[in-house]
Amino acid sequence: MIRVGIGYDSHRFVEGRPLGLGGVRIPHSRGLAGHSDADAVAHALTDAILGAAAAGDIGQLFPDSDPRWKDADSMQLLHSAHDLVRGRGYAFAQADLTIITEQPRLGPHLGSMATTLTERLGARPGSVNLKAKTNEGMGFIGRGEGIAVIAVATLEVR
Ligand SMILES: [Zn+2]
């Protein structure tokens, strides 16, 4: 039996923070604002995995009102969420993500993000796919104010 979950996340670009997506540091003039390290790729994938297990969402597990999660390593949060769903009898099967931003160009970094996420989940090579696109200049993404990520993940019942 297969279960499917969806995740969405967005963060605002700010000066003075590094840009980390999918556990990979990406050279850029701005990073993302957030209570944690604001890794929107890790957050969207975490929500997709939790959603597939009907286990709530990242905000319930790691509330931003809790000082424990200030500047938290989002790849660690992903790992913890994956542990939680495994404990409920699910195994991660695969995920597909789309990152939407005008800048920076993420194409050269998608492979290392996929490898990092796959390894962090202990999943088979090729089980995480990432795509990047712009928003054709429209809206908050088009104005370069922020980034958005959509993720779909499937879990197998063990
Ligand atoms: Zn987030």
Protein described:
- This protein has 158 residues and is α+β, with helices and mostly antiparallel strands.
- It has helices at residues 40-52, 58-61, 74-87, 110-120, 139-142, and strands spanning 2-15, 19-21, 24-26, 30-32, 90-100, 128-133, 146-157.
- α1 packs parallel to α3 (74-87).
- Zinc ion (ZN) binds next to β1 and α1.
- Specify the structural class: alpha+beta
What shape does the CA trace take? Answer: globular
Helix-residue proportion: 25-40%
Bound ligands, each once:
zinc ion
How would you summarize what this structure contains?
With 158 residues, the chain is of the alpha+beta class. The chain has five helices and seven strands, in the order E-E-E-E-H-H-H-E-H-E-H-E. Helix 1 packs parallel to helix 3 (74-87).
Features:
158 residues, alpha+beta, 5-stranded mixed β-sheet, two-stranded antiparallel sheet, 5 helices, 7 strands, 33% strand, binds zinc ion
Question: Which helices and strands appear, and what pairs or packs with what?
Answer:
Elements: E1 2-15, E2 19-21, E3 24-26, E4 30-32, H1 40-52, H2 58-61, H3 74-87, E5 90-100, H4 110-120, E6 128-133, H5 139-142, E7 146-157
Parallel strand pairs: 5-6
Antiparallel strand pairs: 1-4, 1-7, 2-3, 5-7
Helix pairs in contact: 1-3
